[in-house]
UniProtKB/TrEMBL annotation:
Keyword DNA-binding among record annotations: yes
Protein name (database record): Transposase
Keywords: DNA recombination, DNA-binding, Metal-binding, Transposition, Zinc
Keyword set includes Metal-binding: yes
Single Gene Ontology BP annotation: DNA recombination
Domain Probable transposase IS891/IS1136/IS1341: 181-287
Species of provenance: Nonomuraea montanisoli
Pfam families in the record: Cas12f1-like_TNB, HTH_OrfB_IS605, OrfB_IS605
Length: 398
């Protein structure tokens, strides 16, 4: 199987400047290739593809030896492929009737990753193998950069990426042939209901806490945001406050990711079969649609309440958690099943009666037909488990 390993970089000041320049030159290459495609189609109606732009790299590098010529040919091809994938996704969305989203030019804060397509082609992982205590990655045009390797790399390193997050730098290794870490069977199975009060509630009644990391840091974020608004754009104070604000958001992201890993690990170690809701988090967190009143104004649409719910859902990190859960399940040999969550919260688990009135409050479920009383999330998780097992049985019978 394929896995990614992310490690912090410890570049020197000169290496940090070179890394920033590498990102900038790749950003300019991306934007120039995008402009080339736009102009060719607008002027001549011609479609420019990756092969043609890749062939021009040789001349671009020869004309700019101190700029584009410094960097790896392979990494520049990866940047052009990135643009090609953006166009492929654009045309796919057009065909399927979704919002197209034409590829955009990348600003300085919107291009933070450079990829080398093969270990040994413009880059080399563990470039100082004889060093007794430290690990280095060698990058063409930058040199041997120290890596804080806090765990062992498994499998074969295929691609190497360098990513900037705020003022920190990371190396990401994509590895093939990573051995699966299969866990012993437990014989247990559970359905899980995603929530805001608790991150997950299982059909057994166990609950995993939602830490609400964004809410916990909201006061400090608000203070930093006000200071940023008062600072003059481009000033030293503006840069300093922006860096502090970015660091606060990065800390919240790391906390959320860490909590998601720990919660997923608890479930993977406990259950052989896990059934969860197939949630469309992007659709669930769309803002409320404005409702014109016909007189130039708008009717009340609950936008404030919807905004607060959206913030709580995003703070819980459902999408991140489910992605991590799927990766851990694959590695551990567990079975993960996604089911349609429709009506799971209003259907009685024992008798199957479905009614909106069954769910009295956010936490209490009382069936109007049989009188069954339970925690609403536990009842929903039981329905989710039953639906997942039915899907599995149907797939096996087919």
């Amino acid at each position: 199987m394929r896995r990614s390993f992310t490690f912090p970089l410890r570049p020197t000041r000169h290496q940090e400047i070179a890394l920033a320049q590498c990102l900038e030159d790749h950003r300019q290459l991306y934007n120039a290739a995008l402009e080339h495609r736009r102009t060719a189609y607008r002027v001549a109606g011609a479609t420019v593809r990756y092969g043609e732009q890749s062939a021009e790299l040789k001349h671009i590098r020869a004309d700019d030896p101190e700029g584009q010529g410094r960097w790896s040919f392979s990494s520049q091809q990866a940047t052009l492929r990135r643009l090609d994938k953006a166009f492929a996704a654009f045309f796919r969305r057009v065909k399927t009737g979704h919002k197209p989203g034409y590829p955009r030019f990348k600003g300085r804060g919107r291009f933070d990753t450079v990829t080398w397509q093969k270990d040994g082609d413009g880059c080399r992982w563990d470039s100082g193998p004889h060093h007794p205590t430290m690990t280095f990655v060698r990058l063409q045009g930058i040199g041997h950069v120290r890596v804080h390797q806090h765990r062992r790399v498994l499998g074969t390193v295929k691609t190497i990426s360098v990513r900037r997050a705020g003022h920190r730098w990371f190396v990401v290794l994509s590895c093939d042939d990573v051995p699966a870490e299969t866990l012993p069977p437990t014989g247990a199975m559970a359905g899980i209901d995603m929530g805001v009060a608790s991150l997950t509630t299982t059909s057994d009644g166990d609950r995993l806490e939602n830490r609400r990391h964004l809410a916990a840091s909201a006061a400090r974020l608000a203070v930093a945001q006000r200071e940023l608004a008062r600072a003059a754009r481009g000033s030293r104070r503006h840069r300093k406050v922006a860096a502090r604000l970015s660091a606060l958001h990065a800390k919240v992201r790391r906390q959320r990711l860490d909590a998601a890993h720990k919660a997923a690990l608890v479930l993977i170690r406990t259950y052989d079969v896990i059934v969860h809701e197939a949630l469309e988090v992007t659709n669930m967190t769309r803002r409320a649609t404005p409702q014109p009143d016909g007189h130039g104004g708008y009717l009340p649409n609950g936008a404030a309440a919807k905004s607060g719910l959206n913030r709580s859902i995003l703070d819980a990190g459902w999408g991140v958690f489910l992605t991590i859960l799927s990766h851990k399940a694959e590695s551990a040999g567990r079975e993960l099943i996604a089911v349609n969550p429709a009506n799971t919260s209003r259907t009685c688990a024992p008798c199957g009666h479905r009614a909106k009135e069954n769910r009295l409050t956010q936490a209490v479920f009382r069936c109007t037909a049989c009188g069954h009383v339970a925690h609403a999330d536990v009842n929903a998780a039981t329905n989710i488990l039953r639906a997942g097992l039915a899907l599995r049985d149907a797939a096996r019978a087919a």
